[in-house]
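Q: What does the assembly look like in three dimensions?
Context provided by user:
Components: two
Sequences:
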Amino acid sequence: MTNSAEEPPKLYAAQEPIFPRRVYGFFRSLKWSLMIVTLGIYYITPWIRWDRGPNLPDQAVLIDLSTRRFFFFWIEIWPQEFYFVAGLLIMAGLGLFLFTSALGRVWCGYACPQTVWTDLFVTVERWIEGDRNARVRLYKAKWDAHKIRLRLTKWFVWLLISVATGGAWVFYFADAPTLLQQLVHGSAPYIAYVFILSLTGTTFLFGGFAREQICIYMCPWPRIQAAMMDEDTITVAYRAWRGEPRGKHRKSADADKLGDCIDCNACVNVCPMGIDIRDGQQLACITCALCIDACDGMMAKVGKPRGLIDYMALTDEARERSGKPPKPVWKHILRLRTIIYTVLWAGVGAFLIAALFLRSNIDFNVSPVRNPVYVTLSDGSIRNTFNLRIHNKQGQAHRFMISVTPKGIFGTTVQGQKDGMVTVPADETGSHKLFVTAFRNSPAAKAGLTDIRIWVEDMETKDRVYKDTVFNGKGR
Amino acid sequence: MSKKDDKHPEVPTTGHSWDGIEELDNPLPRWWLWTFYACIAFAIYLFIWYPSWPISTKGAWAGLGHYSSRADVAKEIKKYNDANAAVDKRLASADLNAIEKDPELNSYAMNGGAAVFRTWCAQCHGAGANGAKGFPSLIDDDWLWGGTIQDIHQTVSHGIRYAADPDTRDSEMPAWGDQLSKAEIANVVQYVLSISGGQADKAAAKAGATVFADNCAACHGEDAKGGRDFGAPNLTDAIWLYGGDVKTITKTVTYGRKGVMPAWSGRLSESQIRQVATYIHQQGGGE
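A: Here is the predicted structure of the complete assembly.
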């Protein structure tokens, strides 16, 4: 310690209450629309019906954990096709990279559930307790009947929203109308209540109380994003060179020395994160752009051009300071980095779409039995066993013919099915044992490994698919 | 410590500096502290409610909640047993031949049988049921006592040469060391080799054929294709229980053999025995 008279630094700091003020403007309207769209998608999706025939669920989006199926409108994904989900997650990741490198933290500002729900909770708060000044007053007021009534009303409405939020989640995992009935009658599965309860709790806590603390202290994304932004990334910034020196006293003597910023604090008062954008880029800024709306409104009132706080890139600062024309937006966005992200994103997308359309309706796996690798039969022939799992993804039972090539050198039988024909019920997986026998002293029996191909033919559609594997002889 | 940073004069730095980069010494959010205390409280609850401290050599604090993961497992097992009671009953009383034709019984028996096999049979017969010297493979097409579902069911229920079970399958491969001369034994061994496709001395094998017809055919059959009434193996095929080389066959003939397979009725439920019999019957060798 350099100065012993100095007070030791505080170890802990209490959360600063934030009372964001109502604001009007382009970005606020955009955020309203996005809020309606995102919340709408979340709450309504499980209730959309989609007819898939008699044996399958009629819920458009359903994650059916008991049968391990994922239904998405006309698409049905089985567990072995999980790569679709992985691919979608990769696309989501790359999309996030792309947006961040082009437009900074737009995800945080507009679409992140934490932002959307906090916005909703703040809106409720404003309806019940009034705008910023009223809320500050209420905050400082004593706990009288009035305050208690307002607080309880607010918490009650928050709780309703939270229950609806936790409740909507479980509808993605079961038939929504049935589950709703069960929930009302108290006969739903135990785990449904656990999820509703814990998601209600987190929604209430995160949206009502933790708010900006989640972004600042809990979320890793703000830290990661810094690595994806560069000087060309368009983000929310303050034109310090135009605004400074800031000053309130427009009528004072040296008013002409002042910049455009009238230091009205409008940008600070509307900020849901409680920060001052004029301090520059900072971790706590989620780029919700409400400060732009607030400042634009103020500038209009005092008759100055809009855009003292605006979306812009770091490179713009140098150009504007030296009076050069600004770089067009497309030049900011079209950079090597964003192009690479776009190409990767589109590549994964194209792969997934191709895979989706090319996947066949029959799909089977072969797992050779390796304990023992082969069995000697009494006549000296050598037998290998293969476990086949045939997935019938169709709405009706189908018959499948199992065969092995090269033909003629092996005897094949399917356990329990003399003719090699098996029936797999609709939307099920059939497990079958295939025995492949090489006759005594035949080349395949004496050799080490012989390549073979196992075919499965759908007798109804005549589709044929194969899997390559090996036959183990005595030579090994 | 607490040197001031130009950009944030209100916040002290930790005083550490790496390549000119310094660390601001911001205070922690207070709710972190509360979270920390909450964790401590939770830990105390865990210690009191759940089994924790070792108290003596006899054991540990059982916890006020008397939680035990073993009891959980027992509960879970009971739950499944109760759920399976009906199908178990049906399986135990079904006609043996009907089990495999009934999809519900069959899939229940195949899954249950696999589990029974792994638990009770794999030690001797191998995890893949392919056997070992003295322990027959259960997946080939060669059976000592028979490979129909009834035969297998009988073998598993009552065992083989299992003295404690009066209904056990009984017989033995006698020791011929005292009865036959060394030369006779050598000849009959050559004969056994010759009929199973091995390299044999022709003259000795011819002499051995008589020894065989006189002494061995009663159990192994005139054609040496085995006798299932005695569990006597087929000596002409490619499969050996103990081994098909001169040394092993000589040892088998001289000293005899009597493999023992335990009886399982009483130890396993009738349903379990039928499960494992069904399972074995469908591993490729079933008759």
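Follow-up: Residues 362-472 of chain A form a domain with the Immunoglobulin-like fold (CATH 2.60.40.10).
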